[in-house]
Amino acid sequence: MSSQPPEAPSPHRVTVVGGGFAGLYAARSLGIDPEVRLTLVDRRNFHLFQPLLYQVATGALSPGDIAQPLRSVLRKQRNTTVILGEAIGLDPDRREVLMADGGPIAYDTLIVATGAHHTYFDHPEWASFAPGLKTVEDATEIRRRILIAFEAAEREAEPERRRAWMTFVLVGGGPTGVELAGALGEIAHDTLRRDFRAIHPGETRIILVEAMDRVLPTYPADRSASAQRQLERLGVEVRTRTRVIDIDESTVRVTGPDGAADEIPSRTVLWAAGVLTSSFGRKVAAATGAATDRAGRVVVGPDLTIPGHPEIFVVGDAAVEPWKEGHPTPGVAQGAIQGGRYAAQVIRRRILGRPYDPFRYSDHGDVAVIGRLSGVTNIGWLGPFGRQSGFTAWALWLGIHLVYLIGFSNRIVVLVRWAWTFLTHGRGTRLITGSKLLPQIEEPEPPVLAPMEPDGETSED
Amino acid sequence: MSSQPPEAPSPHRVTVVGGGFAGLYAARSLGIDPEVRLTLVDRRNFHLFQPLLYQVATGALSPGDIAQPLRSVLRKQRNTTVILGEAIGLDPDRREVLMADGGPIAYDTLIVATGAHHTYFDHPEWASFAPGLKTVEDATEIRRRILIAFEAAEREAEPERRRAWMTFVLVGGGPTGVELAGALGEIAHDTLRRDFRAIHPGETRIILVEAMDRVLPTYPADRSASAQRQLERLGVEVRTRTRVIDIDESTVRVTGPDGAADEIPSRTVLWAAGVLTSSFGRKVAAATGAATDRAGRVVVGPDLTIPGHPEIFVVGDAAVEPWKEGHPTPGVAQGAIQGGRYAAQVIRRRILGRPYDPFRYSDHGDVAVIGRLSGVTNIGWLGPFGRQSGFTAWALWLGIHLVYLIGFSNRIVVLVRWAWTFLTHGRGTRLITGSKLLPQIEEPEPPVLAPMEPDGETSED
Question: Which of A182, A225, A245, B115 is the most buried if burial means most Cβ atoms within 10 Å?
Fold first, then answer.
C-alpha cells in the first residue's frame, strides 16, 4: 500500500463510532495495544447481536439474551473508554467527532462503524404501518403486533376482518424476510393450534413479497429455490417479481410479475426491504467529500479508508466498495467483523511502521434458517458439501450463531431457550409490552362464551 | 359455613379477572374440573413473577425470564378460555363483567384478582420523578434511569452535579425497597469498579427512606435490625422515621425523626411505598356496595366473598380482612396463591354440595434478599431456625423463588443468569431501552480524553 501512516503522538488516539459488529471487533482487536488509547462511542449502551433479532420479534428470545453491555464486553481493556453518546458530526481538519451532548472527541485515527437503518425510500408514510427490524425497540414492537394480531383474531367473529388479522405480509425476501417468514410459519403451525381456542392454523396466511425474481437473491439460484420450497412447506406464499405500491392500516397493494395490481387485506405488515446508511455515516461523507452510493454508503479505498483521508476508516454496513469485482463485502455480520478487524490491524501496522495488504473479504458462506429443522447454506469453500438444506443447514446455523454470540451466559441462555422451544414447540418470551397492549377490535363482538340468562339472586347471609 | 351455593347451570361458568398469583392459581386449581367452564381475563397476555421484578430493574434478569404467556400456562386446560382484554365494570345483577373492547362476559361465579398498583396518594405529580415497580414497563424504566445515572456521572466533571447523579433515593422500606437497595449496593460495589473509568464506588450514595421506625415493618424487630445492618454493610444509608415531603427532578425533601427538614440532591428516586387497589377492584366495590379500606381494598368475609354476594370472590392484593386478628393475609405472593386456591376449592365444593371451611392463611414465612450472599428470613413454623440471616437466608430465597417461578425454561434461564452474576459479578441484561436513551447533561463538558492539538495533514494518496 502506498499510504503512509499519519504522524501521531504516543499513545495513538483511536476513536471508534458504533458498537455493532464492525466497531466492537475493531475495538477488541486494539484492546491489548498499550500504544493505543481507544474511545468507543455508541448511542446505545449495548452491543446487539442483530442476526438473532428476528427471534426476539417472534417471541423465541428476550432482548437481553442477544445484547451485551459494551462496558462489560470491553471491561478488561484498560486502554479503552466507552462513551454513551450520539456522534452528530465530524471536523476532519481538527480531527474531532462532534457530539450531541458533550464536547468533541479528538482522534488520530477514526473508525466509522455506524451501520445502517431501514428506509422506506420515497414512502416515509409506510413507517407506521410496516415496522422494520433494526433495533431492540423494533423487535419488541413487531412482537407486539404479531401477538396482538392473533389475540384480535381469536376475538373477532366476522370472517373477513378475522382473515385480515391472520394475514401477515413480509416485504423483502432477503435473509431477514425469509427468517421472519419461517418463524411465522412455525408459530402458525404450532403455537396457534395449542394456545388458542377459536382460531386455526389453516386460517393463517403468510405472504413474502420480493421484487427480484427469487428469494435470497445474493445466494446461488438453487439455494433460493430450496429456500422457497421450504417456505412453501411451512405454508408461506412466496411472491417474487412483485412490488409493493402502497401500504395502509388494513391493506397492502402490490403489482405482480405480469404488472397486474392486487390488494391483500392485512393488519400486520413487516418491512425487511431497503436500508440506508446511518446519519453519522452520511455526515462523514459530506464532511470529507467522499462519494456515496444510492443507500448513502461511503465509498472506501482498498484499505477501507476514505480516499484522501487515510486516518478515517469506514467499515461494516456504512461502507461500500463499488470498484470491487467478484467479491464485494456483503452487508452481513462477517463482512463487518472482518472490516473492523482489518482496520485495527492496519492501525497497529502503521504504528509499527510495517506494510499491510489491501482488505480482502473472505467469504465463509451464508446460512439462513427457515422455521424448525430447516434452512439453506451456501458455503463456497466447502464445495458441494457447502450447499446444504433442511436439518444440516439448521444445525450449522445454530452452532455458528452460538459461537458468535457475545457473552458466555447469553450463549447458555439462548441454548436453553432453543432447546425448550424445540422440545415443547413453545415460545417463552411472547410478551406484549409497550403502550398499546390491547387489540383494537372495530366493533364490540360477543365474547367467546355465549351470554346466558342471569340466574335469580340466591345469595343469603 | 352458612352460605348456600348459588344455583347454576352445568357447566358452571367461572370468570377470573386478573392473571397474577391469585387469579392464575385459582384458574389452575379449576383446570381439571369438567363441571367448570373457565374464562380468565387479563389486560396483559402474560403472568408476571413480581417478586423478581426488582432484578429486572437492576439488570440481573430480562422481563422474559420472569414472565410466561397465560395461554401457554393454561394451554392444557381444555375447559379454559383466555381473553386478552380490559375489565372495566361489573353488573352484579346480570352477573356480567363489562369489557372495554367487546361484549360483556357472563359468570356464575366471579373471582376478582386484579391486584394493586402503586400510588403517590396526594402527590400524583411525583409519578414522573419517582417511578414505582409494578409492571414490566416500570422495571425497564427504572433500569433505564439507574443505568443513565451512572453514564451521566461518568461524563459529568462538576463534582456536585456528579454527586446528584450518583445519589439514589428509595422511598419505602418494605421488601421491594430493601431488595432494590441491596441490588443497588451490589452494583455500586462491583459494576462501577469494573465497568466505568471515571466514577468510583465510594461516590455512590444509596438512601433508603422509611416512615416507620424500622425497615421490613411486617417482620419481627430483630429481623428488621439484621436487615438494616446488612444494608449498611453494603453502604446503604437507612433513614427510618423519615417522611418524604417533596420530590422534584433533582431533589428529595424529607423530614427526619426530630422533625427537621433535609434536602437530598438526587437525580434518581424510586418509589416503593403506597399501593392502591386496581380500578376494577374499586368498581367491584362500588357496584356491590362492599366496604373498602384506605387503600381501596375490598372487605371480604371468611370465605373471601363479598358479604351479600357469595358468587363474587375477591382474592390477593385486591382484598382485605380487617376483622381478622392475629394472622391477616399479607399482601405477598403466598397470600394471593392461597386465596386463589381457596376460592377454587370453595367453588368445587359448592358444585358437589359439600361443606367448606373458612379461609385460613397459612404463614410459610418471609425471606428477603439483601445483595450478594445476604438476606433475612422470618419463618415462624421453623422456630429459632426460621430466623436466619446472611448466606442461609440468601440460599433459601434463591431456592424458593426458583420453585415458584412459572415455566421450566424460565427456571433454568434464571438459574444460569444468577450463577453467572454470582461468578462474575456481572449483570448481563443492563440494557437502556425506550425513548430517552441518552443522559441529559446540563452543559457540555470536556470528554474524558483531554483534547489535543490536531496533527498536521499527512495524508497522501
Answer: A182
pLDDT of res. A7: 53
DSSP state of A6: P
pLDDT (average), residues A324-349: 89
Average per-residue pLDDT in chain B? 88
Name the catalytic one among A179, A210, A311, A321: A179
Cell digits for B407?
A: 415455566
Q: B316, B113 in Cβ contact below 8 A? A: yes
Closest by Cβ to B461, choosing from A86, A308, A445: A308
Hey, are the CB atoms on A99 and B151 less than 8 Å from each other? Answer: no
- What cell was used for A66? 442477544
Whether A420 has its CB under 8 Å from any CB of chain B: the answer is: yes
Q: Model confidence at B6, in pLDDT bands (50, 70, 90)? A: low
The answer to whether residue A432 scores a pLDDT higher than 90 is no
Query: pTM of this prediction?
Result: 0.87
Known catalytic residue: A179? yes
Q: CA dist A182 to A130, A199, A281, B45, Å? A: 18, 20, 33, 23
ipTM of the complex: 0.84
Which residues 428-457 of chain B have a CB within 8 Å of chain A? 428-434, 437-441, 444-449, 451-452, 454-457
CA dist A19 and A125 (Å) reads 30
Nearest to A103 among B68, B424, B446 (CB): B446
With contact defined as beta carbons under 8 Å apart, do A320 and A297 qualify? yes
Are residues A72 and B96, on separate chains, in Cβ contact within 8 Å? Answer: no
Which residues of A336-380 form beta strands (DSSP E)?
Answer: 366-369, 375-378
Q: Give the C-alpha separation, A6 to A130, whole Å.
A: 46
User: CA-CA-CA-CA torsion for A121, A125, A126, A132, nearest 10 degrees?
Assistant: 70
Q: Does B440 have pLDDT greater than 70?
A: no
Which candidate, A204, A79, A228, A87, places its Cα nearest to that of A150? A204
pLDDT tens figures, A16-70: 999 999 999 999 999 988 899 999 999 999 999 999 999 999 998 999 999 999 9
Is the separation of the CB atoms in B354 and B42 below 8 Å?
no
Distance CA A216, CA A194 (A): 31
Residue pair A242/A257 in contact by the 8 Å Cβ criterion: yes
Q: What is the per-residue pLDDT across A288-300, written as a single tens digit (0 to 9) for each?
A: 999 999 899 999 9
Q: In which band, very low, low, confident or very high, does the pLDDT at A449 lie, cut at 50, 70 and 90? A: very low
Chain A residues touching B309 at Cβ < 8 A: 459
Amino acid at B121: F
Percent of chain A with pLDDT over 70: 92
Supply the mean pLDDT for chain A. 88
From chain A, pick out residues whose CB is under 8 angstroms from the CB of B310: 459-461
* Surface of B (164-203) touching A: CB under 8 A: 194-197
Helix axes B221-233, B175-186, angle to 10 degrees: 20
Beta strand A109-112 with A309-314: parallel, antiparallel or unpaired? parallel
CB atoms within 10 A of CB B166: 26
Chain A residue numbers with beta carbons less than 8 Å from the beta carbon of B409 are 416-417, 420, 424, 426, 428
pLDDT of residue B7: 52
| Subunit contact A431:B99, Cβ cutoff 8 A | no
Contact A395, A372 (CB under 8 A): no
Distance from CA of A224 to the nearest CA of B (A): 34
Distance of CA B106 to the CA centre of its chain: 31
